[in-house]
Amino acid sequence: MPPPNQGGAPGKTGSASKPSPVVFAVANQKGGVGKTTTSVNLAASFAAAECRTLLVDCDPQGNASSGVGVRRGSFELSLYDVLIGRAALKEATVATEVPLLDVVPATQDLVAAELELVDADDRATRLRQALRPHLDGYAFVVLDCPPSLGLLTLNALTAAHRVLVPLQCEYYALEGLTHLMATIDRVRNAFNPELTVEGVVLTMFDGRNSLTHQVADEVKAHFRVFDAIIPRNVKLSEAPSHGKPALLYDAQSKGAQGYLSLAREILDGPPAAAADPKKRQRGDAEEEPPAEATTTTGARARDARPRS
Ligand SMILES: Nc1ncnc2c1ncn2[C@@H]1O[C@H](COP(=O)(O)OP(=O)(O)OP(=O)(O)O)[C@@H](O)[C@H]1O
Ligand SMILES: [Mg+2]
């Protein structure tokens, strides 16, 4: 895979040719939809494309850290230390086994950060402040969010340029997106006007299940959905127990290949319709669905739309 062109990412900085890093938040407050699997494997795929990438584990579960082989006890500083101002992001950054991929790990301590920062005026911008001076040399930063819309996700959305939404094609899949899109709107208005929804990644896709197709069609009616679809693949679920992204565990597996395709699609840039600045600002790609239309996923179509 070639390094990025200027279509999808990274963009330009003030200097004539130096690309600026693109920060992705991988977010969906629904649990177990593939956020961490997407963060780890997309970050590894960017690195495999010779794009230096930083993975930031924003979840106290620490699954993104262990997923790239950085296990509890093997590091001294974590994102907790960064957010409470005890360490610079650089000091908490650890190299991984994947060339060009670094990680800022997380531990359960991160739960305490949410409580400790509750009265801090800059509580929503701590991650952005920590990240900005540290971005030099990276093409991509991938922020793995926890399954909530609390302070940690808020920090990730405030620090990000673009949001990737992993979505499992199941009943009620769209329902939680209402809250996510409303949160993204609030963050955009309050802290981060440039935040865009890059698109929805269909995860754990099982083409034999007819509901899967129904849900996928419905999501496509309201959001930009990546052509690269991540299949349900056992190698993706086995790889974390070996502390490896799927690319190192089984590069030929359909899961690893799916994430390589996703990275390639991002590097190549969005299709013309989705690149329309107005549509991308809202994060959608299609026309307004009929008001109050009830969807096959049980969510009201109007509610499921990202709002501008
Ligand atoms: N495409 C896939 N095929 C098979 N298993 C998968 C796939 N994607 C994720 N999994 C498995 O599904 C489970 C949930 O995935 P993951 O941890 O990535 O979700 P998550 O959204 O990060 O969860 P949480 O909300 O708890 O942070 C994990 O056991 C993971 O290994
Ligand atoms: Mg996770």
UniProtKB/TrEMBL annotation:
User: Which superkingdom is the protein from?
Assistant: Bacteria
Cite a single Pfam family from the UniProt record. Answer: AAA_31
What are the AAA domain coordinates in residue numbering?
23-196
Region Disordered: start and end of each range? 270-308
Locate the transmembrane regions by residue number.
Answer: none
The protein here is known as Chromosome partitioning protein
Which organism is the protein's source? Sorangium cellulosum (Polyangium cellulosum)
